[in-house]
Design brief:
Order of helices and strands: HHEEHHHHHHEHHEHEEEHHEHEEHE
Protein name: Parvulin-like PPIase
Number of strands: 11
Shape: globular
Keywords: Chaperone, Isomerase, Periplasm, Rotamase, Signal
GO molecular function, one term: peptidyl-prolyl cis-trans isomerase activity
CATH superfamily of the largest domain: Porin chaperone SurA, peptide-binding domain
Distance between the termini: 29 Å
InterPro entries: OMP_Chaperone_SurA, PPIase_dom_sf, PPIase_PpiC, SurA_N, TAT_signal, Trigger_fact/SurA_dom_sf
Helix content: 40-55%
Signal peptide: 1-40
Length: 458
């Protein structure tokens, strides 16, 4: 699923890109109403009136439909759904139960409908994406995410039950949408110099306050469907806590504009979040998940990717020069014997006089040394980040390892501390504000395409 996540070329704004709009909720309401009595003649223009004693006539349950549809004449087959589903199953190592599979199929069908509308609109607007551009993006995905050539990528997709055509269709949909936004939306977006300067001033005034990089899955809920949506969101949280891919679930389930980038909100401050989310986000630790949280219009699932202070150098951005000294254990060694060997090894390494001497000492102990001068502290496991940042050159962390992999010791040989972050430039902030508005217009644009579409379900 990593391959799919890299398809979006949209720049991620550090400002929240949310509009709590219930996209598609009108369609759900229309299906639920059936032939119920509605006093539309007495309602204001555009208002939908639902009687308190609504009665459903007939047995037209949309959940019983097969996962196929015809969108303005273009067919979406069950195979299309199956192949897209295979990408999600692979991203979650197959850990998806039968009930979750049913929900995923319905969501994938909705995504394919949106994708089809975007491709159709691009073609109608003479902004269709050329096949050569699709092939180039596909090859780039293969290289960046799989370190493979296109042939190996094709074989992988077929092996997991998907296909190159399915992934290329998704690429075409995303590139078509970008082309449409660049032509029909971006030229009409304007951010004034005064607005940019005002935001820069607010940013500098917030120096030292905390920023949060959050992932979100937003699910809209009409008043009569809140319980069902809540239960679905709860099951998604359970899947995520069992090891499911947050990026994959965000792309398939989230109705926020951040879905195309795996739910990544970018860096935001608590004041930019709805009040309901401010409370829960404040107490999150990196890597933690919370939800579903009720917000206006639906429910949110939040995931804290990282945390930092505004315009303040983060020690975790320091670039470290490290040496890793490794000593394997004999096959079949007992835990007691491994413990003794670990103590002896640690004492021997401690006798080394810094990084210049450790290679010779390690050789004498039968150990191997690996050097890396470009290790970011934030890329190390969370449990050792704080400890290693407190070391001086030549000092080591306590030994770690396992009976199978042997024992390892990290020695700090140097550290380049990060420079103080001056924040975005005028041009960068202006681009970020423009991106925010483009994304909001994009949501309205897609909503209009859905409203005008002719869709036949099989």
């Amino acid at each position: 699923m990593q391959a799919v996540n890299t398809l979006s070329q949209t720049r991620r704004s550090r400002f929240i890109r949310r509009a709590f709009v219930s996209v598609g909720s009108l369609a759900a309401l229309a299906s639920a109403l059936g032939a119920g009595t509605v006093q539309a003649q007495s309602a204001p223009q555009g208002e939908i009136v639902i009687p308190d004693d609504v009665k459903i006539f007939g047995n037209d349950n949309p959940n019983l439909r097969r996962a196929t549809a015809v969108v303005n004449g273009d067919v979406i087959t069950g195979t299309d759904v199956d192949q897209r589903l295979a990408l999600i199953v692979a991203a979650n190592q197959g850990k998806i139960d039968e009930e979750e599979m049913k929900r995923l199929r319905l969501q994938i069908l909705r995504n394919l409908i949106d994708e089809t509308l975007q491709i159709q609109e691009a073609k109608a607007a003479d902004a269709a994406v050329a096949d050569a551009q699709i092939d180039q993006s596909y090859a780039r995905v293969a290289q960046q995410n799989f370190n493979q050539n296109v042939g190996a990528m094709d074989a992988y997709l077929k092996r997991i039950g998907s296909s190159p055509e399915s992934l290329k269709r998704q690429i075409r949909g995303e590139l078509s949408w970008q082309a449409l936004l660049q032509r029909n939306v971006q030229p009409f977006i304007n951010v004034s110099d005064d607005e940019v300067n005002e935001n820069l001033s607010r940013l500098k005034a917030a120096k030292g306050t905390e920023e949060y990089r959050l992932g979100e899955i937003y699910m809209s809920a009409a008043p009569d469907a809140r319980q069902q949506v809540y239960e679905n969101a709860t099951k998604i949280v359970q899947q995520l806590r069992s090891g499911g891919s947050f990026v994959a679930y965000a792309r398939q389930y989230s109705e926020a504009t951040t879905a195309s980038v795996g739910g990544d909100l970018g860096w935001v401050r608590l004041a930019q979040l709805p009040s309901e989310l401010q409370v829960v986000a404040r107490d999150l630790e990196t890597g933690q998940l919370v939800g579903p949280v009720e917000v206006p219009g639906g429910f949110d699932i939040l995931y804290l990717i990282d945390k930092r202070q505004v315009l303040t150098a983060d020690p975790r951005d320091a670039v470290l020069s490290l040496k890793q000294i490794s000593l394997p254990f004999p096959k079949g060694v007992s835990e007691a014997e491994a413990g003794k060997r670990a103590e002896s090894f640690a004492a021997g390494i401690k006798a080394a006089k810094g990084c210049g001497d450790v290679d010779k000492v390690a050789t004498g102990l039968g150990a191997q040394v690996v050097t890396n001068d470009q290790v970011k502290a934030r890329d190390l496991p969370a449990q050792i980040q704080t400890s290693i940042l407190q070391l001086s050159p030549g000092e080591t962390l306590p030994p770690f390892g396992s009976l199978d992999e042997g024992i390892r010791i990290l020695m700090l040989c140097g550290r380049d501390d990060p420079q103080v972050n001056d924040g975005p430039s005028f041009e960068q902030l202006q681009a970020q504000l423009e991106d925010d508005r483009v994304n909001k217009r994009a949501q309205t644009y897609l909503r209009d395409l859905r409203r005008d579409a002719i869709i036949e379900y099989n």
